[in-house]
Design brief:
By secondary structure, the protein is mainly β. The protein has no helices and six strands.
Amino acid sequence: VRQYAKQYSGGGKVALTDGIRGSSNWKDGRWQGFKVDNLEVTIDLGRQISVINVGATFLQAISDWIFLPTEVRFEISRDGVDWAEVGTVSHDVPDKVQDKLIHEFGVGLDGAPVRFVRVRGMTRRVCPPWHPGRDRPCWVFADEIVVR
């Protein structure tokens, strides 16, 4: 599991599964920020349950150097050892959208028996050439991972 930035903890270790959603204001204290590094979170559900959907919410605020992940990868496991990728989701949100926006990535699972869920939000690592921070480190901000 990658460590979030201390100043953007979103409330700590359980922030991504606490059911409290962040607003479009990344300073509201609900978002976990990852600078340059990909977000990588593994959730232990405590026992095998039937899962129909896994989703993860991210923020884009390009004027603050926060970009949506280029893609989000979802994996599941019954035992925490053997993993199966169940989907990779990208988006069609233009990087140059100036408004702050919240975007959910998700995959359906059709009731698969699952105990562990892994979510990986792939960052672009640096700001694009047209951005004032070109080639400098950028951020991925995540809010909530929901397992249904």
